[in-house]
Amino acid sequence: MFDVSGLVPEARSVAQAVAEVYYRHTQPWFVGLICFGSAVRGGVLPGVSDIDFHLYLQPSIFVAADGHDNVLPLDLLLNLHRDLARIDPAPFRYIDGGAETDFIPAGHIGPIPGNYHLLAGRLPVAEATNAQVKVQARQALAAAASLCCSRPVTAWHRTGRPGPHRKSVLSDGVAGG
C-alpha cells in the first residue's frame, strides 16, 4: 500500500513504519502522505538528519486549521506520538511530521518537485513552481542579509576575487550582476 521505492535505501524501513502508524490512526480522514528532504534527495547524515513527512488529512478532523497552526484532537495526537515513539528512526536522528490540509497559506509553497515522494494517497496541493522557489530563495537571502549586515551583501564568483563580471549584489531580495 505504501510506495517507499522513491526513497534512499536507508530511509525505506523507517518510512514504511511511519506510514503504517499514520494510516492506522487517520484512515477515515487520510488524503495523502509525502516524505521529503534527504530521505528523497540523498545526503543523509547519520545521527544528524531528520526524516520529514507531511500527512495530508481532510479538514473535518482538525479542531482548528488555518494552514499555519493545524490542530488535531488531543487523543489522536497522543496515540500518534505513542506509536511513532516506538519506531527506531536510525540512521535518522528523529521523525519530523506535520498534519496538513489542502490549504497553502500566503508566503508558503507546495512541495518542490524532485524533493518529495508520495508514499500513499494523493497530493492535494499544487507543487511549487520554479518561479515560486526562486522568489522564496531570494526572500530568504535578503532576510539573512538584513540580519547580519547593514549594507548590501556582495557575493564573489569563480575566482573569489573582485572583478567587474564576478560580482553580484543582493538588495531588496533581488540578485544582480
Architecture of the largest domain, CATH level 2? 2-Layer Sandwich
H/E element sequence: HEHEEEHEEHEEE
In DSSP terms (H or I, runs of 4 or more residues), the helix count works out at 4
Helix content: 25-40%
Low-pLDDT windows of residues: 156-177
Q: Describe the strand arrangement of the main beta sheet, using strand numbers.
A: 5-2-1-6
CATH-defined topology of the largest domain:
Beta Polymerase, domain 2
- Class from secondary-structure proportions: alpha+beta
* Radius of gyration from CA coordinates: 20 Å
What number is the mean pLDDT?
86
- The tally of beta strands, per DSSP, is 9
CA(first)-CA(last) distance: 50 Å
Strand content range: 15-25%
Largest sheet: 4 strands, mixed
**Domain unit count:** 2
Shape: globular
Question: In words, what does this structure look like?
Answer:
It is a single chain. The chain is of the alpha+beta class. The protein folds into 2 domains: 120 residues, Beta Polymerase, domain 2 (2-Layer Sandwich); 46 residues, no CATH class. It has a 4-stranded mixed sheet. A 3-stranded antiparallel sheet has the order 7-8-9, covered by helices on one side. A hairpin with a 2-residue loop joins β8 and β9. α1 packs antiparallel against α3. The longest helix is centred in the C-terminal third of the chain and has 19 residues.
